[in-house]
Amino acid sequence: xxxxxxxxxxxxxxxxxxxxxxxxxxxxxxxxxxxxxxxxxxxxxxxxxxxxxxxxxxxxxxxxxxxxxxxxxxxxxxxxxxxxxxxxxxxxxxxxxxxxxxxxxxxxxxxxxxxxxxxxxxxxxxxxxxxxxxxxxxxxxxxxxxxxxxxxxxxxxxxxxxxxxxxxxxxxxxxxxx
Length: 178
Fold this sequence. Notes:
single chain; two-stranded antiparallel ribbon; 2 strands; about 55% helix
C-alpha cells in the first residue's frame, strides 16, 4: 500500500468552510451605542404625538395613489397614530439583531474584514434612515409637514437605502466571490 499511495491522484480540496480557531471576532464596524440615537428619535416621536394629539385630524390618510393624492382614510385612534412608532421599534430591533449577528458571527479564515465592517455600518445607517422616514410620516399625520415636502423625503430615503445596499453588495462582497 505504501508503494501505491504516491501514484494515486490527490484528493480535491475540501468544500467545507474552515472557521477561525478563536471563538469570535467582534470588533468590526461602528460601536453599537449608535443605536441610542434611534431610541432618542423614537422617544421624541412618541412625545411629539402625545403632545400634539389634538392637532391630528379625525380622519387620517392611510393610502396614497401614484400621484400622491389620498384614496383611503381611517378614523383617528391611538392605535392608528402609533403604527409608525411600533414599526420604528420593531424595525430597529430587527436591525440591531442583524447588526449583532454580523459583528458576532464566527469569522471564516478567508473572509475579508471590510465585508463585515461595511455591512455593520450599513445596518446602523439604514436603521437610522428607517426611523427618520417613519418620523416624517408621523409628523405628516399631525399636519406639521406639507405633502410636497414629505413625498420627496420619503422617496429619497428609500432610493438612497436601496442604492447603498446595491453598492455594498457589489463593492464589499466576500473576497472569493468578487
